[in-house]
Write a structure and sequence with these properties.
The protein is α/β, with parallel strands linked by helices and about 400 residues long. It has 15 helices and twelve strands. It folds into two domains: about 130 residues, Enolase-like, domain 1 (2-Layer Sandwich); about 240 residues, Alpha-Beta Barrel (TIM Barrel). The strands form two sheets. Strands 4, 5, 6, 7, 8, 9, 10 and 11 form an eight-stranded mixed β-sheet that branches. It binds magnesium ion.
Length: about 400
């Protein structure tokens, strides 16, 4: 079996309203799918993390840099292909876009292996450790409004997420330490003290501000405080983790086993959030997951993107053992976008794929299908409708 071509598809559409996180507001949703074709007629699908124009740059890396390196290789030699590409790109990108680009290609190779062997992805990576995965709803994105207006919007959105049967939810912060705590307190009061609530800062703070917010979160029984400081600030993470009781979560902007080794070795985080579509793909995710297990750090994947990314993550979590185990172990969760209708989740797959329906009907839980590979095939007509090339 040989790889014959690699195609990238960047899809984009305009949102009805602007959404944001601590770094920017945005009006468009983009996603980057990778399609690896073989001489046996089997195609694999993957996805690269990286929004907007970054997706276009990554498309160029996939098609113009990675494709020529691996056309003609046997797609089942995933480890060899990963090392070959990483080694040849090492001098130009040990983190960031080259690794995001490699991630989508690697995921597609696993999809090919699944289709070739007629096995679902979770089976290829160790089998079922969980029949169902709890799903948490992320929403409550920032909007360009006053803090009082945002408080009302967030309270309403929190109510909506709860009504969809999610058993945990995550909100954004990033307005500044004092306003952020007002926002979290309002949501906490709205949903009640027993509901699992997580707070995501997208590295908005310096260490002192993060300590201030973290101490406030300690009083509000927050399950985790996500990306409080810059991903490069290992010392800041370490000090926060030492001084704050709330779980410190992070890692969505960390790359490869080398970066993750630093994050873990420096005792930066209580909860690891690897982003499989960014850190180097499934081949690298499995190594990072092992590294986290060896250090007794729970893994709760970061999930962003289309149905392809969600399906891959559902397989990864299905195959993930409890750490450390027991009668009532703490379980990983699947992150799921509850913001304004995301058609890259609902309308992209040719298969019936509705996480929202599962959550609604199944007490906040979702399960993988036994379809071969990642189990989701993007619809070609849908791709044609939303694909952009510049
Ligand atoms: Mg985040």
């Amino acid at each position: 079996m040989k790889i014959t071509s690699i195609k990238s598809h960047v899809l984009k559409y305009e949102l009805d309203k602007e959404l944001g996180y601590s770094q920017q507001y945005y009006k468009h949703r983009a996603t980057h799918l990778v399609e690896v074709q073989t001489d046996e007629g089997i195609s694999g699908w993957g996805e690269c993390f990286g929004p907007g124009n970054i997706a276009l740059a990554n498309k160029f890396i996939v098609e113009k840099v990675i494709q020529p390196l691996i056309v003609g290789e046997n797609p089942m030699n995933k480890e060899f292909i990963w090392q070959k590409v990483y080694n040849l790109l090492r001098d130009s990108g040990q983190k960031g876009m080259p690794i995001q680009a490699l991630s989508g290609v690697d995921i597609a190779l696993w999809d090919i292996l699944g289709k070739k062997t007629n096995m679902p992805l979770y089976q290829l990576i160790g089998g079922k450790c969980n029949n169902q995965i709890p799903v948490y709803g992320y929403g409550m994105m920032l909007q360009n409004k006053s803090v009082n207006e945002l408080i009302e919007l967030f309270k309403e959105e929190a109510k909506q997420i709860k009504s969809k049967n999610f058993k945990a939810m995550k909100m954004k912060v990033g307005l500044g330490p004092k306003d952020d705590l007002k926002l979290v307190q309002a949501v906490r009061e709205e949903i009640g003290i027993d509901f699992k609530l997580m707070v995501d800062a997208n590295h908005a703070y310096n260490l002192n501000d993060a300590l201030y917010v973290g101490r406030g979160l300690d009083e509000l029984d927050i399950f985790w405080f996500e990306e409080p400081v810059a991903p490069e600030d290992y010392e800041g993470y370490k000090e926060l983790k030492h001084k704050i009781n709330t779980n410190i979560a992070g890692g969505e902007a960390e790359f490869t086993k080398y970066g993750w080794n630093e994050l873990i070795k420096n005792k930066c985080i209580d909860i690891a959030q690897p982003e499989v579509c960014g850190l180097g793909g499934i081949t690298e995710y499995l190594k990072i997951s092992a590294l986290a297990q060896a250090n007794f750090i729970p893994v709760i994947n970061h999930v962003w993107g289309s149905a392809v990314s969600i399906a891959v993550n559902l397989h990864l979590l299905t195959a993930q053992p409890d750490m450390p185990g027991g009668l009532f172990p703490s379980k990983a969760m699947l992150e799921f976008d509850t913001t304004e209708k995301n058609i890259f989740i609902t309308d992209l797959p040719t298969e019936d794929f509705s996480i929202l329906d599962q959550v609604k009907q199944n007490d906040g839980l979702a399960a993988v299908t036994d379809n071969a590979g990642i189990g989701v095939t993007p619809n070609n007509d849908f791709i044609k409708e939303f694909e952009i090339n510049e």
